[in-house]
Every structure is written in C-alpha cells, then in structure tokens.
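Why do we bother with holo predictions? Because pocket geometry can differ from the apo form. Keep that in mind while you read this record for (2S)-2-hydroxybutanedioic acid.
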Amino acid sequence: MFEHVEAYAGDPILSLMDDFRQDPRKAKVNLSIGFYYDHNGDIPVLDSVIAAKALLDQQPVEPNLYLPMSGEPQYCQAVQQHIFGEQPTAVTDRLITIQSVGGSGALRVGADFLKRYYPDAKVYVSHPTWDNHQAIFAGAGFEVLGYPYLNQDQTDIDFSAMLKTFAHLSEHSIVLLHACCHNPTGLDLEPSQWDQLFALFKEKQIIPFLDSAYLGLGDGLEQDAYAIRALAQSGLTGFVSNSFSKVFSLYGERVGSLSVICESAAIAEKVSGQLKATIRANYSNPPRFGAQLVRIILENEALYQQWLQEVENMLKRLLQVRSDLYQAIHKIAPDLDVGYLLKQKGMFSFTGLTAVQVDEIREKYGVYLIRNGRICIAGLNSGNIQIVAQAIAEVATQQLVEAAI
Ligand code: LMR
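The structure, written out:
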C-alpha cells in the first residue's frame, strides 16, 4: 500500500537536533535549533512562569473543558494588548487576535484562510528565510517564491532590491516578513524602511504577513514591535503571527497567536468567524495550559514587569555572547571580518559559512549549526565559546586563503 512512500529527507533544523542528541562526543556544542540557553547551557524555566504556575495551582480545580475554537478570550485580549500596545479604538475595533498552536500553527491557520479567499495568490518569502515558512505556505497549497533580502556579500539588507521586487508584484500577492530578529540573518529593517514598505504595499494592494517569534530579543520590546504597530496604523489589511516559545521559554506548550488587521469592524467579525472554521477543520481548538500561564503573566502588572526584566536579561546575555565570540575569533584570526556578529540582532547570526564548511565544523569539532550557516547565538557560553571560535576561525580563514590563491 505504501511502497511508493519516499523516505523523509529530514527537517533542516529539527532533524539536526536529533543528530546532535545521537552524537556520542562529550564536547559537542549545539548551535542549531533556536532554543534560548542560559549561561550554564540550560534552557531556563522563567521565575515569572514559576510564579504564574503557583497562582494557577491556587485556583480551584475546574473541569477541563475544550477552549473556544479561537482560544481563551482573555488570553487573546492580553496578547493583543501586549503585541500591539496602546492603539486607538478605531484600530482595535477592526483587529482580531486568536490563540494559536505556537507560531507555526498561526502561520498555518493564516495560510489556510488566505488560500480559501485568494487561491491564485503567490506567496513571497525572504531569501533566505526560516525553512518552515516555505513548507507551511506550500503545504497550504500556495506557490511560494523568494524575494531578495541580502546584498551580494551578505553583509546587509538590499532594501532597494526588495522594493524593486515588490513594486512588480501583482495585486493580492502575500509577502511574508519577519517583524524583528530576522531568522536566519539577524538583519532587520529600520522603522523608516517599514514605513516605506507599507506605503508601497498599500499602493500595490499587497497583503503583508508579519511573523514574530523573538519580540524583545532584538532591540527590546518597544523597538521590536515597531513593524507590527506601524502595520496596525497603516490602513493595510495584514496578518501577524506570534510565538511565545522563546520569550517565555515554553517551547513544549505551543503558545502563540494570530492577529488580522481588517478594514472595518464588520469585516473583522466575518474574518474572525472564518478563522474559527479554519481552526475547527484543523485541530478544533487550542490547548489550555501554556496559554493560561502566559495570560496570568500578561494580566498581572508585577509579574509582567518581572517577565519583561527576564526577557531583557536574555537580550543582554545575547549581546554579551555576541561580543565574546567576536573577541575570541578576532584574537585567533585578526584578519577575518566577523563584524557581522555585532551588527546582527536576536538569537541568530548568519555566518556566511557554506554547507561544506558547516559539515566540516560538525565533523571535526562537534559544533552543530544549520547548513545555511546560521548559528544560534544563545547556545554559546564560557565553556564552549573557545571551541566555536576556533572552528569558525579555521574554516573561514581557509576560505580567505583559497580566495587569495
Ligand atoms: C528555529 O528556527 O530554530 C526555531 O524556530 C525552531 C524551529 O521550529 O525551527
């Protein structure tokens, strides 16, 4: 019956994590998947989350019913407020937020909804992007194409190439963008560039879909939320998917949200209904536990402040290890330009290493990074930074020497 089923080639990120687990070497280093690790190399349980759980435990045990299709209303309300900040009622009236199964679930519900109403639209993702963007939208039946993101030597965003591409898209094309902490490059647009982009999208009737899984880990929450809040004010119809996996360190709970900014409250009402229909046909309704923890924190001022501080501490550590890795590589190979480490933001850095170099680093040093050259900065700590610096310096210097020959 299933003889024609082909072997799964594996996922570029999740399967690498399996390979890492199976690697018997003691000194191996995992810089592949986007987990935030603390300075001891542990995935933290946040104090605000522990406190929220204690509060939840004090509440009387209730029957464990299904949540509504679009999730717990108070969670959705609190998340909307957190992500979009203070918005005039003219905006909130036409803004819908639903609970989703992580960021991927939000993307998929948005993609399925869009496919129903714009079946012939094409979806454009940045080149490069997070691999699952392509998989999710292709899985919903869309043709997925790339738009240029980086300049020739991969050191910066090629904004004019982006604009040029978007200027030629047909009406109702869907453009997926990273709200902040671009994965994998760590390079984000400036506020003025976002404004320019949204003005163009309005003129061309393009549908923006902002994905955000790292709010607070780039330049801090307010700056990182700029694109989302500007989109809400822009008069465009647009989508915002959001994941709380990293910033609450709640990966396994699959806590996320999908927001849609509509033209009017009446349209928002109908879109909200059709999102429910999409959810019902996918997984019926989302899980409760993780969303309850997040809601408690977002609704409780003291816990919210504590959590914001914890996210800020994560951000500070990311900046510190970026600088430490920069110094360590610079010491070993002063001629190597690794300024990208300091320029890029968020949990990832895009090293520019080729798949062959990445394989070499993995085999020789037991250092795991994604084959597109992405490293998860958060996996670095004082115990492994030297070996990583040594590995990167060695292969990148070889490349310099080869280029000179
Ligand atoms: C990543 O980019 O490593 C994370 O978002 C985890 C994942 O699901 O790929």
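The mean pLDDT is 96.
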